[in-house]
Amino acid sequence: IDPTPMPPDALFVATPITGDYPLLVDFDASGSTDPNADPLTYTWNFGDGTMASGINPNHTFTTPGTYTVELTVSDGMFTDTYSIDIDVINTAPVADFVATPQYGQPPLLVNVDASNSTDINGGILTYTWDFGDGTSATGMTASHTYNVEGTFTITLTVRDEYGASTTMTQTVVVSLSTCNLVIHYRTSDNSSSSAMDNQVRPEFQIENIGTDPIDLSQVTFRYWFTKEGTSAQQAHIDYADVGAANVTTTFVDMPIPGTNADAYLEFGFTAAAGSLAAGSSSIQSRFHKTDWTNYDETNDYSYDMSKSSFTPWNHITAYCNGILSYGIEPIDNCPDYLTVNDNPVLDNTYQAEIELNSAGLVPNLSNVIMNAGNCILLEAEFEVELGAAFEAFISGCQ
Q1: Which DSSP letter does residue 235 get?
Q2: How far apart are CA 352 and CA 354, in angstroms?
Q3: 271 φψ region: left (φ > 0), alpha (ψ -120 to 50), beta (else)
Q4: What are 156-207's pLDDT values in tens digits?
Q5: Residue 11, helix vs strand vs coil
Q6: Rounded to an integer, what distance in angstroms lies between the CA atom of residue 326 and that of residue 174?
């Protein structure tokens, strides 16, 4: 007597169930059973519009996404289904490029090459360049000419056909100086607690990216910070490749505070430090207040908690013979405007003077009533052509 017919039980395993596209997955339905020992047929729906049959097929998923793979098992009378989700991942490409040269005098032609960028998925990549001066380009390679001095950050964005992207940046220094310097920075104050304690611990690598040696006695560089209070400060050089005794430190209060800075620590070198050939030289430093009260580094211009390994950092500025050769100084907070009867007129002092003169306003007497650093405040009386008079306050940065 035949047993009562019963439906089969569908079951399968998939290996792997997740991975980057194109993803080859092996399927095995040998775990499917039939209570009546009836022979089974296997029908597969891979969820991407393709089908297959057999007990252990394989299938390649060529597009990222989540696919529900369904197996239907039949004994000729009854069917049963079983499904598994397969996650096919699109890992973002890795952006990588070289910029040549990274230092020089204007006009400076810089070539960029992103051919070292990779995509584990073998996808189609697009390349977008931001040259840091308002200009951009596309393509695996590009070139750009910088016509003015400055420190510019080149940003490469590599994007695949599914929209995943990563970026990489490099710094280009355009300067009339012959000092080919880049300052690399890292900090051990890379937690919220250490950024609020009583010491600041910046470390530096001074890199000569040129071919000629640089006389270090001509080099200075500045770490910009907010000192929180008026206490005296002390700096220490814990290590320097050129010898700690050959590194000098000077604290300077800024007469006009800048963005996230009211002081800087200037590092210099004695004649005994010698020259820096092509390559880099390391310095480990720390500084504190004499009363050991705390700093708040989180709002400091030169501080970056994320830089736990040496990275070029243009918020630290370097100078050769007093000429800025690397980095961007913090913007000072000196106002730059003209007021007439307490109403702002123009944003640029020198343009304002031209406008006044061209309108027939003749300055009668100018008197300096404040002089702080590079900023001046002038109180002047102007006569208009019709004979009326008013006071104008001109404030600006030289």
Answers
A1: E
A2: 5
A3: alpha
A4: 999 999 999 999 998 887 877 778 889 999 998 878 788 899 999 999 999 9
A5: coil
A6: 8
Beta pairing partners, 180: none
Does residue 74 contact residue 116 with C-beta atoms inside 8 Å? no
Distances (CA, A) of 119 to 96, 116, 290: 11, 10, 53
Which residues is 103 bridged to in the sheet? 173
Q: Which two tokens stand for residue 92?
A: 């973002």
Using CA atoms, how far residue 218 sits from 302, 326, 328, in Å, is 22, 14, 19
Query: Closest by alpha carbon to 240, among 274, 288, 189?
Result: 274
Cα 353 from chain centroid (whole Å):
39
Strand pairing report for 375-383 and 98-100: unpaired
Residue 93 main-chain phi, psi, to 5 deg:
-65, 165
Which residue type does 93 have? P
How many residues can be counted in the chain? 398
Max CA separation in the chain (angstroms): 126
- Backbone dihedral angles phi then psi of residue 231, each to the nearest 5 degrees: -65, 150
Burial class (CB in 10 A: 0-12, 13-18, 19+), 119: buried
- φ, ψ of residue 174 to 5 degrees: the values are -110, 115
Q: Give whole-number Cα distances, 257 to 109, 266, 303, 318, 338, in Å.
A: 35, 16, 16, 19, 21
DSSP 145-187: EE-S-EEEEEEEEEEETTS-EEEEEEEEEE-SSS--EEEEEEE
Q: How many helices (H) and strands (E) does the chain have?
A: 1, 34
CA 112 – CA 264 distance, rounded (Å): 34
Region 25-32: mean pLDDT is 97
What is the identity of the amino acid at 196? Answer: M
Q: Is pLDDT at 344 greater than 80 in this prediction?
A: no
One-letter amino acid at 266 equals E
